[in-house]
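Dig into these lines:

——
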Amino acid sequence: MILATVGGALAAYFVSRHNLDSARSDRVQSAQQQISDALRRRAYYLEDIADMVGVHDDADQAEFSRYAHVRGRNEGAIVSVQWVRRSPSGELVPPNDIGPHPLLVSPADQADADLADAVDQPVAAGPLKLSALQKRNAISQPVELANGDEGFYMTIPVGFQRFSGQISALESQSAIVGLVNAQQLVAEALPTTANPTPLQLRDQVTPLATIGSGLHNAVKAAIATPGRAWTVSVGGGSLTTSETLLPWLILLIGGALTLCVAFMLRALARRRDAALELASERSSELAASLRVVEQANRDLERARSEAERLSREDPVTGIFNRRHFGEVLARELTDPESGEPPAVLLLDLDHFKRVNDEHGHLMGDAVLQTVTDRIASALREDDCLARWGGEEFAVLAPGIDRDGVLALAERAREALAGEPITVGDISLELTLSVGAALATNGRRTPDALVHAADQALYEAKGAGRNQVRIWEADAAASGVSAR
């Protein structure tokens, strides 16, 4: 219970921390995306003006200003927009042919007029050069606006068309520069709420915009800007009072429950000891009884195993008996995965009765054992050999065709006829008559298959014994003779 209590407290703590970290990640990613989108929208706006200037560079200032204001009627974060050309001397100057101060958008606060003229601002020189010469968007270092907010210059290259006006190649190196209020850009990008999440946008070490107050446990994320390293920091917040107290509450309740359970277990332990003391007085008797029962179970299991073996084994030859053969044959005939049909062979010793009559049944049993070994040596590994009764044997040959049955029967017949049976000082010449049947469509039951093999055996004996016969569908026996 102590481990469960500690585990529950830790789980509550880590779940609260996970939820807090997830909320922090969501907030900073959302702020990062919204500010990046706002920055891209202002770039699109300035690119739109740059496209207009590139096509209509000979328009007057009033036309440019009207176009810029119509296109940017909701661009409150854009303080001013200026068009800057490269003069024949190589300097970036305002295009004086459309006016001394070509501001396409003039600042609302005249105190920002000097900043609006980007040509005279050192911080705008680098971005203007990148846009005019290398045709790249660029952002300048922060500049302080008249109202105390931080701003920055965003420069966009102007791409002149071939017949856009009477300009030289040098003069075509032109740029649009917009002065952007960073504080208003961020304010417009984020949703307005009564209690906004504290946020600060920075250009390296210089704060550009701040939303809310109390930036605690800040989470930072980079914002991709051309030429500048901007980061946004969002207040990470902290665990609530209930989330902070919950692990301690779990520990307190779990500890109290643990103490209660400990007292109960102690009382139960005393009762258990008394019961164990009483039980120990009977343990020796119980152990002895268990040993007797276990020995009886082992004897019973051995007897059962032996009885099962004897029920399936012929006591004279040691091979399977007729019962086991019948069960194996039934399974083989009903196996859907078997390939070639099985065959049954019945093998009968010719004139075996004379052996029992002349030499006695003990000698007959010894001869049967030797015959069994001879027949088994001619069989395949998967074949099943059983004593069918008296001097008759049965073989189940699975997955075999007619030629295979004939060859198998001939091997068994020749194994016995090839040399005499020797038992002690007595040598006997014995032969086999073999009848076989394949499990064709008309013989797919054990009784039908055995009956067909028995008919073939009858044919073999009628043909003079020491013969092999295979039962055919038309009842015509065919095979080979031993002679």
User: Anything to note?
Assistant: Residues 474-483 have pLDDT under 50 and may be disordered.
